[in-house]
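Feature request, filed as a ticket because there's no other form

It would be nice if the structure record came with a short human-readable summary line next to the tokens. Right now we just get the raw output. Example of a typical job, pasted below so the devs can see what we mean:
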Amino acid sequence: MDCEVKFSSSSENSSDSKKIETEIAEEDVEYVVVAPDGGYGWIVIGASFLCILISDGILFSFGLILSELERVFDEPVAKVAWIFSIVNGISLISGPIASALSNRFSFRAVVLTGSIFGFVGLSTSSLAQSVDILFFTLGILFGVSIGLIFTPLVVGVGYYFDKRRALATGITVCGSGAGTFVFAPVIYWLLEKYAIRGTFLILSGIYLNCAVLGSLLLPLKPQRRKILQPEGVKLLEANETPNAHKEEENNKQDLKALEQGQLNNKKVNVEKGNKKATKGKELSRREYLSSIFKFSLFRSPTFVVVCISSFFQSIGWFVPFVYLAAHAVNMGIPKEEASFLLSIVGICSMMGRIINGVLADHPKVSVLLLNNIGLSASGLLIILCPFFISYELLVFYSIVLGLALSCTAVTRPILLGELLGLENVNNAYGFMLVFYGVATLFGTPMAGPVIALNMDPLNSPPQFPGNIISLNGTRALLIF
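Raw output as currently delivered:
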């Protein structure tokens, strides 16, 4: 009997020691997300590619839709151009909101929400009786939907890859170029067959497929890893804060003062406690918002420079997508061939994004240099567009423009990861899109009146570059 007691007590001691060892082991580990660099990540790339193909394909083919809206509602091009500007501006400005929601919920939940917004915006646009209504249905609803889809997809795919992150991002954003290539002729055919209202209804049904594709973005499960703790650093307890000892000492002093009769007014104590509680709640709210949005990123001079660069980049960035087809028609090129120029830009942009993704992954290639080369080349091309005065030259222009525009689309997320760390890419990319959006919101409409003036029959396009310089002057630089 004594042996049984001894055996049971020893077994209990051993089980207790195992529990203690387990608890100690759990304190020495942390749970982190490890990129699989393949596997299910390729499915995520495929789903993200198709989502961006649909959303950006419709967005970058908006020039064809705006031309039809101008004809149907008999509105000036300057007013109709505001629709695209609002759509693009809102989609970019909503980047931080998409990032914050992704941090709070998940990439998948945000993409699903954006798909529903886009479906509602496009379907209700088919019922619009004026351009003013389209400012809300297309500009706000559809614009928010693109922001809620694009940002989580571009940032989220980077969590599934490490060594091949640039290539994965490049393939994902290829959906933008592929979408322009696919949807430019599709939208042209839909407008000819079903008019503007039928086109909006069909596009809304296509857009809803983003919800199905977005559901494939399953979150990665964190894995256990031993904490690498530097020597000489004391870890705080789970319920301990850096000011815990100071607060405890203050409480002791208050208690001592109360015993001595210095704090004999209970009302003072109650008010003091209420103030502390209110202050604590305010601090907790600020800390919560700060953890979601990470406003501290603006303390980095590097990030501020990237944001300023993004602002100036976007002033004329989307102008060719809106006015390139109209510019070609004004040159006497048939409408169908003019719309094909957007397809050329799209397919070359898709090819360029894969090429730039491979280059950015190479250890000897500077992502910053690659970004700057593409940025400079695309800026010069936008300025020089009026000098391309034949269809053959515009085809060549569209090829080079697509390759140049693809560069920064791939390198910007990678560049932010290298400069700020992967954990800050989601919020940094969202804030950067705000600067894109503000510039786009005003850049495209500013070009509208100049385009309309240049397309006046009395100002017919000149036949050789010398006349462009002498007749258009600085106006040529403002058009594109």
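Something like this underneath would help us a lot:
Strands lie at 29-32, 223-226.
The CA atoms of residues 35 and 159 lie 6 Å apart.
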